[in-house]
Amino acid sequence: MAATATDPRSDAMTSLFDPLRERASGLKPIRTAVVYPMSPSALAGAHEAAGSGYIEPVLVGPHGPMTALMQRHGLPADRFEIVDTHDDAREAARRAALLARDRAVAALMKGSLHTDQYMAAIVAHEAGLHTGRRASHVFVLAFASYPKLLALTDAAVNIAPTLSEKAEIAQNAIDLCRALGVGTPRVAALAAVEEVNPAMPATVEAAALAKMADRGQIRHGIVDGPLAFDVAISAQAAQVKGLVSPVAGEPDALLVPDIECGNALYKMAAHLAGAELGGLVVGASVPVLLTSRADSVQTRINSCVLASLYAHWLAHEAR
């Protein structure tokens, strides 16, 4: 996805996200509804994101309490447009989803409401944001030891996806990779082993996903599996095991069998491997930012970069 970096966590060194930031900086900031930002961290996140130049926040929530909160914490209360709602998180999420439906905003960002409330409004029939495909989350990770950005899906939204749902999750990841500049993304469908074993359903489904991609049911990418993590990420490991694969050693995306696997991989990447990251929910008609209070400023900004590039790709290049 980008040039090699030495240490993605060091400001003094090249980041694999730099080419994406450069591309996004040349695009018009996308109007983004920030849903119920009723905490200091959520409001600060909106200001940080606006300062990056990648998004133009529109705050959706109760005007009076929101402006009072900004004033108490030294944030300018007149910087952004505010869509006034009742002091109810569900109502704010519903209004924001309708703004996206009506194309008044081009992206959605989670504020301080619960993820379930946020996502329920987005997937509701009234919102009109369905594309016919299941929504799924993609983390994009930069490692010092890997020469390009690596997508990981799904570690945040889908708990135990079925085979057909995994096909849609794979397609979502391929589309995001394409939006980030990868011509033909390579997806590794992960399992514990490389052999198909009926006693391990993840291996059977991974093999089925590979065949679905061969036959055009998953488009614009190459999918192979089952692949254990070491074989997926290391061409040397694949060679030692005698495995011939068009994906092993150079995946652009890792498709995990379930949320437990994905969540563990993501947290190990962030907390032990020091990976730089951003994340996005894709599959709806607009990009959806699922930010967390624990996210660093850099993670928030990287996520806004992903949203900007994906939104412009959806508007101009998706096919």
Describe what this molecule looks like in 3D.
There is one protein chain. With 319 residues, the chain is of the alpha/beta class. It has 2 domains: 13-130 and 284-319, 3-Layer(aba) Sandwich (Rossmann fold), CATH 3.40.50; 132-279, Isopropylmalate Dehydrogenase (3-Layer(aba) Sandwich), CATH 3.40.718. 40% of the residues lie in helices and 17% in strands. The chain has helices at residues 18-25, 40-52, 63-72, 89-101, 115-123, 163-179, 201-214, 229-233, 235-240, 259-271, 297-316; strands at residues 30-35, 55-61, 81-84, 107-110, 136-142, 150-153, 186-190, 222-227, 253-255, 276-282, 288-289. The strands form 2 sheets. Strands 8-7-9-6-5-10 form a 6-stranded mixed β-sheet, with helices on both faces. Strands 3-2-1-4-11 form a 5-stranded parallel β-sheet, sandwiched between helices. α2 (40-52) links the parallel β1 (30-35) and β2 (55-61). α1 packs across α11 (297-316), α2 (40-52) packs across α11 and α4 (89-101) runs parallel beside α5. The radius of gyration is 20 Å and the shape is globular.
Protein traits:
single chain, 319 residues, alpha/beta, Rossmann fold, Isopropylmalate Dehydrogenase, six-stranded mixed beta sheet, five-stranded parallel beta sheet, 11 helices, globular
What structural class should be given to the helix and strand makeup? alpha/beta
CATH architect. name of the largest domain: 3-Layer(aba) Sandwich
Shape: globular
Taking Cα atoms only, what radius of gyration do you get, to the nearest Å? 20 Å
The CATH class of the largest domain is Alpha Beta
Number of helices: 11
Number of domains: 2
Quaternary structure classification: single chain
Mind summarizing the main beta sheet?
Answer: 6 strands, mixed
- Order of adjacent strands in the largest pleated sheet: 8-7-9-6-5-10
